[in-house]
Amino acid sequence: MVILMAAGDYEYDENEQRLKINCLGCIYGASIEDFAGCMTRVIDKILEVKKVKTIVLAKDREYEYGPEQTAILVEIARVIEEVVREKLMTKVPVRDSLQKRMLPEFNSRLQRIILNLLRSDPIGAYVELVREIRRVRIKMKETRYRGAYDFYRDFERDVLGVIKAKLENTQLIKLARPHMAGYHIGDRSLYREIFVPSIRPNFMLTRYMITPPENGKSVERYKIGDIEVEIFKLPDSASYFYYVLPPEFTLSEEKYAVLDAARRYMATHKPKSAEFVKTGRIREVFYNIGKDMIREVADQQGINLTNSDLEQLSVILTRYTAGMGVLEILLSDEKIQDIYINSPVESQPILVFHNDYEECRTNLIPTQGDAESWATRLRLQSGRPLDEANPVLDTDIAVPGGKARFCVITNTLSPHGLGFSIRRHRDKPWTLPLFIKAKMLDPLGAGLLSFLIDGTASLLVAGGRGAGKTSLLASLMLEMLPKTRMVVIEDTLELPVDQLRSLEYNIESLKSRSVLTMIETEMASDEALRTALRLGDSALILGEVRSTEAKALYEAMRIGALSNVVVGTIHGESAYGVFDRVVNDLGVPMTSFKATDIIPVCKTLRSADGLHRFRRMTEITEVRKKWDTNPDKEGGFVNLMEYSAKEDKLKPTDTLVNGESETINRIASYVREWHGDWQTVWENINLRAKVKSAIVDMSIKLQRPELLEADWITRSNSHFHIISENIMKETGSVDSKTVYNEWLAWMKRSLR
């Protein structure tokens, strides 16, 4: 008969003095160093069994704390036991009514330190004890009553001082004291330096449902490499079910044995910290070591592996040692946009947002061990903290096939521990033709945006979360010629700087302090922007305008410090919403806002049944300059293009068609061939639209999706300008029909 232990139950081996605590089902993880609740549970068990030499926390892995680390916790338990046994909390004599009134307040604070904080955060308890002694001494100096003075003196000498001395004799406080300056209650970083358990891992932590959902109807099946994905429609449910079957879930027992042995060896390999920073480097190191180790283990166990088997097992091993485990499987699917892992992580499957089927449940159920492993890797790779004192980590990391933005929360913000929200980025930048194909905007809208970028207008791309603002911003960057110097400022690195650099763009990237995590070692966004202004004449790209950099940006635009394109994103559902946020929320002077030329607005729209969502650009709005206090009422916002829900497309307004745009006319006034000739300007905008549309049509007709990607678009834009320049030199004007025909001929030659 097998007896299953409930969460928090323990087994005690008297001979080995080994305390094993079951942590399966616990809200907080099996880690003394990371979780205050776990430390409390362990110290309580030590108080109960007394003699302990080894502590094992059993979850999906067993975390073992050896005799030296266990002795540290035993000392803390002994201090608690001595304080209670010696009745130190009630030792101060009460001589009069004044002291009787003072006692409950001091006992309450002392009980919090001894009975609560000392069990969960002994270092914090010591810090609070020192602070309490300091407060009592101040009160001794300030009081005018002899009875109060005697009470403070006795309390400090006979209670606080005695407990402080006991703690200072413990190994934990001796180790921590040199590093206590600036210590915050709840910060677990010192514990991570002191407590490092040995881990006896199973091969994988993630649980998964092996059978498809009952009564589910298969609606699509596809593969990502050697990974099978199947989408099911569930009866009586508005959501779909994302069923994935990675190869590691279907390996033979022999292959599992080889992987498990190889992974145990890999756990002992500790690369230098510099290797962790370079994700590509650590993957390469682990892949090579793992491949050799798998080959060696297979030979020792007499298992014959083909080259294909060896490659497969090496990729899997790298995924679960140097990578993000099962998350990499989901992030390798180009159809997945978002991944959600809600806390407590073991309570429900991983949820995804699929481009075709929107919100889906998956058959993957993470464990607390998964969450802790992901959090640790994100801390290492980002260099940012994640603990109770810093409960939010916001970072971008590279994953096979692209990048992903991770927002991680933990205690004290999340009452149930770790939770994750992950936004997947394409491995290649979005382009305007890709948006045309996805129906987010039409060719004329793309042509207009291309014209405005060439005309060095200032644009703020507005929209809600997930509306496509950052992706559109990336596509606008590709409308600049590679020779144009760009300075990019972001607090989380989402824009495709590396991809543009590989296309030989002249680009510099700056990373500013996140407004969420507020890491003091990172430069504030307004300081980063002022630094960017000193980096030479450049197009300025802001990942998002959301805090103090707004004032610096508009100040620079007003005084003419920016003579090139300025493009950024901002949260807002309309042009007036952007104005309201910039002026009222971010404190930019009202007249400074007029430095904004164009506001394209992206939105996520819903179908009539409420079950489907799709992204559309709903307006391209011009900000005019002749208004005083309310641009919405005084004609300061004029739409150049508007979304027609009936036709599901972006349509030009009379203002645009009739050549009444102040921004476009200003751009035209600086070009000799366009000055005073609206028809030529309008032809140029339509020419750009025709080129974008032709690229999409050729891609579909020839079944060559790569024509819509950044490298082709960059080449196309460059040749478009070169052809225009050559025709201008030959004829003295730029005839749109001639430019298009020559561009089309170049495109056809390039496709051979």
What does this structure look like?
The strands form 4 sheets. Strands 7-8-9-12-11-10-16-15-14 form a 9-stranded mixed β-sheet. A 9-stranded mixed β-sheet has the order 19-18-20-21-17-22-23-24-25, with helices on both faces. It is of the alpha/beta class and 752 residues long. The chain starts with 9 loop residues before the first strand and ends with a helix.
Compact description:
The chain is of the alpha/beta class and 752 residues long.
Features:
752 residues; 25 strands; alpha/beta
Present the secondary structure layout.
Layout: E1 10-13, E2 18-22, H1 36-49, E3 54-58, E4 62-65, H2 67-85, H3 97-120, H4 122-142, H5 146-168, H6 171-176, H7 189-194, E5 198-200, E6 207-208, E7 217-224, E8 227-233, E9 240-245, H8 253-266, H9 273-277, H10 279-300, H11 307-321, H12 326-331, E10 336-341, E11 351-354, E12 358-362, E13 364-365, H13 368-382, E14 392-399, E15 402-409, E16 419-425, H14 432-437, H15 443-454, E17 458-463, H16 469-477, E18 486-490, H17 497-502, E19 507-511, H18 525-533, E20 539-542, H19 549-558, E21 566-571, H20 575-585, E22 598-606, E23 613-623, E24 637-644, E25 649-652, H21 654-657, H22 662-669, H23 678-702, H24 710-731, H25 736-750
Parallel strand pairs: 2-3, 9-12, 17-21, 17-22, 18-19, 18-20, 20-21
Antiparallel strand pairs: 1-2, 3-4, 4-5, 6-13, 7-8, 8-9, 10-11, 10-16, 11-12, 14-15, 15-16, 22-23, 23-24, 24-25
Helix pairs in contact: 1-2, 2-3, 3-4, 3-5, 4-5, 8-10, 10-11, 15-23, 18-19, 23-25, 24-25
